[in-house]
Amino acid sequence: MNKITRTIKLKFVNLNRCKAQMFEQMTEENTRIANKLLSWPIKERRQMTTAKIMSELKSALVNQVIRHTTSPTGRQTKQYKVLPVEVNNQNWKLSQKGSTYSISFPTLKGEKRIPIEVASPHWQPVLDGLLRGTIQGGSFKLIKHRNKWYAYLSITEDVPEVETEKRLGCDRGQNNLAVVAPQQGFGKFFKGHSVKHRRRYFQQRRQQLQEAKKFRALKKWNKKERRWMDAINHTISCRIVRFAESHNADVVIEDLEGCRNTMKQSKKSRSDSGESRHNWSYYSLEQKLNYKLALKGLKLIKRPAPYTSKSCSTCGVIGKRNRQDFNCPNGHYHNSDLNASRNLSQWDGFCCQLDLQRDASVMDSSGLTDGVFGTPPNSMNTVKQEEYIQLSLFDWARYENPTLSA
Ligand SMILES: [Zn+2]
Fold first, then answer.
1. 82 plus 132 within the same structural domain
2. Can you point out the beta strands (E) in 305-380?
3. Do 149 and 242 sit in the same domain of this protein?
4. In angstroms, what is the span from residue 317 Cα to ligand 1's centroid?
5. 177-200 pLDDT tens trace
6. How far is residue 168's CA from residue 69's CA, in Å, rounded to a whole number?
7. Where do the Cas12f1-like TNB domain residues begin and end (predicted)?
């Protein structure tokens, strides 16, 4: 069993102005207390109790503020702009009446029960799990986003691990944002054509705004691009997970850490937003894949990136890649992205075949007595040459010196 924690966003439904104002007040009060606490040294903060703090807020909520300011993150904070109200797991309750779910917690006007909206079909089973007790609820935060109030609830659930030997490889790139493929059989392509187009458009507008020095608009524009990329990554990761589920397989991706520095890209394609490798958030796709797979009990496995796109997935020999074509010296042809993802899927236990007889003779003839690339001498090499006794059917001594008598 794996324990998986995530946060779900629950919207308060039909929140009247009175309650919205109350939430606002609570948040203000919460922030005020937190900032007051921060003005004291950490030692004093630790000894603080709710009784010593004068506030309209309920002690359960004040307690949470004290905890927050003494936590590692709180200790580094100088001042809070806004600190949302946090309700810990013992102080809220979920209830259901008919088809409406509601959450009750202490507010300024006592304990209130406020209905919440089941916005996404994903949340329905989660809420039912919370009511039945199969899913544990943690604390939740009251957060205002775009003039709407939400409860950000953290939940922990047990997911049975799926034991599987099968693997899918997932190669990420530009022409295809992602290609997933099993060792044999059809793969899935996520083409990046329209994405490229749209990214160029984003870049163009960004430059215009930059030149016009419209920085506020620029910030907005960048956020818009980010949201759009996020949405695409969500879609792709979701489909990959579905594909993995149908194959009952773990997913292997290449470890792209540091790939920006090592992967070469010409200046021209680097400056073209459609082609640049820097702008696409592969990392976010990876994170999304990771947690979505974990929810299904599957794993995301990372393997080193070098040679995944250079070796042939059929025979393991290093071949030539020319854009989307991959050709191997043994005559195998593959689509290069598909080839890379196949390589990833069979990464473990797959290596290029070493022809022992042939390679040993090559090593001998080149005089590499202490192994390839001057590796440290092993126990065989340290033995002195004189101690060898030649065991051979062929009598070398007589061959070299025919006059020698038998
Ligand atoms: Zn081949």
1. yes
2. 320-322, 325-327, 333-335
3. no
4. 6
5. 899 999 888 999 999 888 889 989
6. 45
7. 282-344
Looking at residues 275-295, what average pLDDT do you find? 81
Residue 176 and residue 307 in one domain: yes
Q: How far apart are CA 73 and CA 3, in angstroms?
A: 24
Q: How many angstroms is it from 315 CA to the middle of ligand 1?
A: 4
Using the mean position of ligand 1's atoms as its centre, give its distance from the Cα of residue 98 in Å: 62
If you measure from the C-alpha of residue 327 to the centroid of ligand 1, how many angstroms do you get, rounded to a whole number?
8
In the reported structure, the alpha carbon of residue 184 is separated from the centroid of ligand 1 by a whole-number distance in angstroms of 15
The two three-digit tokens of residue 69, written as one number: 């300011």
Segments forming the whole domain that contains residue 171: 167-258+271-346
What distance in angstroms lies between residue 33's CA and the mean position of ligand 1's atoms? Answer: 67
How far apart are the CA of 332 and the centre of ligand 1, in A?
Answer: 5
Same domain, 298 and 153: no
CA dist 4 to 87, 137, 161, 183, 402, Å?
A: 20, 12, 11, 29, 81
How confident is the model over 140-171, as pLDDT tens digits? 999 998 889 999 999 998 888 888 888 999 99
Same domain, 145 and 225: no
Q: Do residues 335 and 282 share a domain?
A: yes
216 token code pair: 């506020």
| Count: domains in the chain | 2
**Residues 268, 271, 276, 280, Cα dihedral to 10°:** 180
Q: Structure tokens of 337?
A: 């992205």
The verdict on 155 and 171 lying in the same domain is no
Question: What count of other Cβ atoms lies within 10 Å of the Cβ of residue 202?
Answer: 19
Distance 51 CA to ligand 1 centre (A): 74
